[in-house]
Amino acid sequence: MNHDVKGLSALEPGSRADGFFLVKSVETKTASNGKNYIDFLLSDKSGDIMGKLWESTPDDEKGFAGNSIVKVRGVVNKWKDSVQLKIEKIRNITGEDGVNVEDFVRSAPYEGEQMYNVMLGYISKIKSEDIKRIVAHIAESKKERLLYYPAAKSNHHAIRAGLLYHVTTMLASAELLLGIYDFLDPDILYAGIILHDISKLDEMDANELGIVSDYTVEGKLLGHIIQAIKELELAGAALGTSKEVLLVLQHMILSHHYEADFGSPKKPLIPEAEMLHHLDMIDARMYDFKNALSDVSAGDFSQRVWSLENRAVYKPSL
Amino acid sequence: MNHDVKGLSALEPGSRADGFFLVKSVETKTASNGKNYIDFLLSDKSGDIMGKLWESTPDDEKGFAGNSIVKVRGVVNKWKDSVQLKIEKIRNITGEDGVNVEDFVRSAPYEGEQMYNVMLGYISKIKSEDIKRIVAHIAESKKERLLYYPAAKSNHHAIRAGLLYHVTTMLASAELLLGIYDFLDPDILYAGIILHDISKLDEMDANELGIVSDYTVEGKLLGHIIQAIKELELAGAALGTSKEVLLVLQHMILSHHYEADFGSPKKPLIPEAEMLHHLDMIDARMYDFKNALSDVSAGDFSQRVWSLENRAVYKPSL
Amino acid sequence: MNHDVKGLSALEPGSRADGFFLVKSVETKTASNGKNYIDFLLSDKSGDIMGKLWESTPDDEKGFAGNSIVKVRGVVNKWKDSVQLKIEKIRNITGEDGVNVEDFVRSAPYEGEQMYNVMLGYISKIKSEDIKRIVAHIAESKKERLLYYPAAKSNHHAIRAGLLYHVTTMLASAELLLGIYDFLDPDILYAGIILHDISKLDEMDANELGIVSDYTVEGKLLGHIIQAIKELELAGAALGTSKEVLLVLQHMILSHHYEADFGSPKKPLIPEAEMLHHLDMIDARMYDFKNALSDVSAGDFSQRVWSLENRAVYKPSL
Amino acid sequence: MNHDVKGLSALEPGSRADGFFLVKSVETKTASNGKNYIDFLLSDKSGDIMGKLWESTPDDEKGFAGNSIVKVRGVVNKWKDSVQLKIEKIRNITGEDGVNVEDFVRSAPYEGEQMYNVMLGYISKIKSEDIKRIVAHIAESKKERLLYYPAAKSNHHAIRAGLLYHVTTMLASAELLLGIYDFLDPDILYAGIILHDISKLDEMDANELGIVSDYTVEGKLLGHIIQAIKELELAGAALGTSKEVLLVLQHMILSHHYEADFGSPKKPLIPEAEMLHHLDMIDARMYDFKNALSDVSAGDFSQRVWSLENRAVYKPSL
Amino acid sequence: MNHDVKGLSALEPGSRADGFFLVKSVETKTASNGKNYIDFLLSDKSGDIMGKLWESTPDDEKGFAGNSIVKVRGVVNKWKDSVQLKIEKIRNITGEDGVNVEDFVRSAPYEGEQMYNVMLGYISKIKSEDIKRIVAHIAESKKERLLYYPAAKSNHHAIRAGLLYHVTTMLASAELLLGIYDFLDPDILYAGIILHDISKLDEMDANELGIVSDYTVEGKLLGHIIQAIKELELAGAALGTSKEVLLVLQHMILSHHYEADFGSPKKPLIPEAEMLHHLDMIDARMYDFKNALSDVSAGDFSQRVWSLENRAVYKPSL
Amino acid sequence: MNHDVKGLSALEPGSRADGFFLVKSVETKTASNGKNYIDFLLSDKSGDIMGKLWESTPDDEKGFAGNSIVKVRGVVNKWKDSVQLKIEKIRNITGEDGVNVEDFVRSAPYEGEQMYNVMLGYISKIKSEDIKRIVAHIAESKKERLLYYPAAKSNHHAIRAGLLYHVTTMLASAELLLGIYDFLDPDILYAGIILHDISKLDEMDANELGIVSDYTVEGKLLGHIIQAIKELELAGAALGTSKEVLLVLQHMILSHHYEADFGSPKKPLIPEAEMLHHLDMIDARMYDFKNALSDVSAGDFSQRVWSLENRAVYKPSL
Fold it and tell me: Which residue, B270, C34, C176, C214, is the most exposed by fewest CB within 10 angstroms?
């Protein structure tokens, strides 16, 4: 399986692939010669490739489903500006193949359960009982999905358990910078980090592989910032949280995208909210830069990255 | 009292004023010759004027308070680009003067109670029990302040009971246009109109004269759109409102300013939300145009009006 | 003819079509296997579909023309993100088919002549002889094309007689809202509505089916707002219209797009111009929302709609 | 008269002035000690200064008028960030003073009549009879005001006969650049230059001193670009100008501000329109730069100049 | 060779081509029927066309290289909205064909050497020894590449020796306008024109045909404006140029794009910098207009031109 | 000296001041009663106040200078929306007063020398000899001014030695975050932080009190970003720094303002440049928040802060 060495993302026109892949989506279409073919979006941990099964039969068209594993053999070629895989052979796996769906999904570098516990550790550091109680309450009620939810459909941290990975990394950064900017209130900052994206769980539909199928109706009509404010409002009412605590945490969430055009009708008005925004940006941008440069040679540029404002970024040759 | 004929807003440099005014604010300052004077913001139903009591005594400085009525005599002169009143005589009213504070406040053309009942009439037209119940619940719980709250600190409908006046005018327009755009759902549109600005009651502090002193802390950190969504969330939980009704009403509120820069993170995604936005704009703009042109002669332009995007508007001589 | 039941817009991949269609455009191209094929843009009242006749013969390539009716049989399949029709059989209609080209064109719900008379009714309500005369003069001189012109090439009211439908609906709304905002001058508002888009007749070339082929040279170099101002200037000179009437009507037209970026160098400076803008927006937006949601199920979203600022809009499940 | 050497614009705090000035405007106001004073906007050819006559008498207040000449003695002092003249003595001139109002007005460096003839020379170079006729017709009908009108109220070429100076300088530049970009049509370019700002004569009210008092009603409701298009429409109808000539000239005018936000709904679509825009910019900007740097020493910066996008510009010390 | 008469850019669907072309790029791809084909970007002096060699053999795939000349026979057809050439026969040229690569490249209308001498002539007119020395130094050190470098990858003056053509045309315009705006310093203006784009030589990689392959790493990380400032800094240090000269020339370069969004962090603060910007714009725009309209008939519009802000421009029928 | 307890910034209308202050600027002006007075901008470590000496004598007007210490007695009053000090007595200090100018200047919390050594410590951690050498070279050559320069004229860190304070705080944050984002190159990040604002030393003129009088000519024509790139270019040439090192460091500087509108023509293209930008933002914003909230009570808002995009920020009452 020559693709194993470097993974899908390293395949170049002319090379061959032979191995197991995750089917992210599958769709039958009609070619310009009037015959049917099947588009498979195949992936492994390194990335995705579009696979084409030309002149498909009705059996082919019924035989495959998304979020399953297939064994594929084929050759890579070029179509416009992207590479695709011309599939020569494809079949579903059997028990004998001994492969596991989770091995084919890009995931956070730590286990969900482990990161969840890290997050609990930060909750336990919160001194205000009022803040601690509401954060713990929400974290607990969302635990199941937190263990596998990504942080996005296609941007930064769009990987299994990416949301928890994003949050726990930000918590670690926050703890360090609190040593420097010691006038900040750790309670507010930790709580804001844990809650800022929590309603992405309700904004997007994702399966246990951490793959987002679509935004929810509520996600489209309100968005995760508003959804989180609602979540806190109900939790606060249930727990008897003080008005000021609720207000400050809701402001943290409301302002964390900073710009009205990005969904924040108010800019940060407390320093912890300002810091939350920058920690969020740093973690998202560092993730995207690292990702973009992961298979770039020194002295070369990456492809353009949409979530980096369409920049093609550079790896210095130092 | 020669100012009575046309009111404060008609006073020109050189004319004299002699009559009763509302003191909106009062402040002692020091002039460039080092002596104290008092700035009175005086108003009657026609508008405001800045009054100056030069070389004030300590008695003067302690003797006057905001939101009271004074008797004033003075002469109007010009300071930079605005007119002001040089106060010659000023005293607080006594019972014998027989004047009433409410006569000095610009108010909606209908009584609060009367407009409240018009609004109840529209609530009773809502067919969905779920929608009717939550709208009625909120309307009732806010009744007391609705009777006198303005719709703004200084923009459109910044008059006593201006908020109810704005809402009931929009309801009347909506009812008419529903006859033309009959695919719209009246329930959603009526509910949206009644609720869209309801949390201005919590965003601003206003007294019973309908004069706003300031924005509230919550108003500054969240804003009335987010506050209304919270209000609905709690009311919906208390009443067991269906998720879809709650979502649609919250979306109506969230999107009614249309532009992210004006506080709406989502644009209208249902036609009733689109219509709500335009009815809101029409009512605000018609109010401001009418107001701006009220004392302009045919063939002339008004002053620049901030809430009309700083336009100086025109009265045709037709 | 199974397509008849729901019309073209309801066809899904795998279904078959067999019936009569309007050919909106026809073009011979070369496929990636080097062979010729013909692209037909087919339509019925429900919408459009791209039809492909593969491996076309020279006879095919000469045999068909735009704005004619054809009988077609074929199967629907998917190409990228859109559906298209693989044509199996196609022929021009004959007299025996008994079909009429106008039945294949999306049209306003009322006859052109009927709407024209409604418009005349509003002109007769104008009290100012000066205004009435110039509006009537222009309406009369444009009558022939008004009966079938659409209001746009591809946006709102891009249907046969769409322009008159747009204008008469706005007139009806205006009449109702004049009852609420009674300080507005009905003469100016009615005249402004009737004239605001009148030069779309000269900005675009459309045939009697109400289909726009292109913008005119003058349309591209000046645009319908400037063209209408010129039209009024000449009509005013011919009729001896008063300078103020002419100026006010030209300002109504000039400012009705509101934003400089959308073609209005001046913002509305009279209240009737402000109202005209909002009535125009409401009618355009309501048309687009209704259209977008016409075949959407409750709880679902439409496709993205360009003229709704690319929103995918929602039909509540209430 | 020590101010004569350098003129008003060179006066610094502490220096004295004694001489004749033009009164641009005069206004009685009330000071913060409650006494009246008079604000005179005084000017000579070098610039303006605000003069203050403290503790004015009723005779003073009735004795002076705008656009007249006064003899003034006083001392220059500083008020906030600007200088002003404390008037010690002021009187109206008499015949014996032997001064002439035009000597006090900043004017173009050439006589109006002379520049008008230069412009006629360019008109005579136009080969197309159609274009020549309409340009000559309009130039002739506007001759009287062209001889003294400025090009602006306060921006570039806000001097007596500034409009003709602007146009004739642009014509000279155009003639030179036509030698380099020889695919341009001189007829269109000359006509466009002569007509582009012609309706500033109707957009602004100016007196024979070339001082603008205000914008006209038509100027505010339509603006000089639209006014010029109307002017051409009527002239074209009267002269039987060809449709294409009229269209091209109207497009030249419509697009010459280039940006929608600056009043041009269409960008230049013919090369002569593109060139017109740049020649206009160059002449305006060179005027403003020259003006701003006229009394700046090498190595220093000017004041901020509004019409140079608020830049403070620099005179190199080379 | 029927294409010779009008050149590639005049080929229309259905016409045949038979002749010599430059291969700008060549790439093997896989069609939707799974077979390989070769994309040739072919060009002659009139423009480019995409050539397709269907069902290519491995010999074909190895047999052709960029920047070489081939003999091609084929037929033009339409693919989406563009034309392409279906190649029937293609071979590399031999010595016997007697064709020269430079005849196939769009070039400036003058020889590089000739334009370089024109530029030297302007340098010799510079009176300041300090300015003349540094300009001459840089011009000399860059001479070799100046003789063939284009001014852009795909915008204005993207032709062989286009950079020198751009500079020398601007110098000629500058000389003329200095006669009108005679307060400008010719030394600074000539130097600024010569240096403003000089580091495009280092921003882009171009071969001797004047074809740009890509931007350099330094070009992407800094851009030609910053690179030129560095170039001057080193040259100034080597030559002992005065600080003020260096500063003024660096400011000329820094500000010549005028807008921050186009790469100029400072706007022009000296009049020569303002003039440089406009001369640059005029020359770029006139080039693009002339180019866009070169094969457009009177009364027609060009294709949309990206570097003209996507305008489709018009050729009047006068 | 009752002002000592809380400092100038705590003075409220009506309170008295009696003590020593730094004169930041002094200027004689003329009041509206025609008499002279002197404006003193007085400051201590807590902030500034405008002091007015009414009816000043010529002796007063010659007797005081900026950047000196005076003894002042007076009373605080209100003028428009700000407070000012009416000076009753003022004199220059004598040796006997025993006060030191540096005690009156807001300074960084650490000594310049101490922070400089911290910075040297980070330079010593740089592993690349090439990078270390150029950073050390520049740091050394700038040492004298670094010890007292502020980071701005009026924004964040506009205090004595503010620039070094800003840089060393960022270095400390960087060191911590490098532990989390360990794919970043510490050499590049440390070097970028040390150099990013280094040319503020040449962009602004500041005295040893850390008070900026103005921007330099070079600062206005080029700006500190471009100045730093030049500085590096010369240092790199002198030291023989590798091209790639120089390029990467110059890109760090060029992109650190992130937005073109804020002076960065290129966005960060390497992750260290992205991180530099966010560390810079965090440190500036935390400084401004801390400063703005320093004398705000819990539950209150600060004044609007220009460098916080005009926000009035909030201190929670938790």
Answer: C214
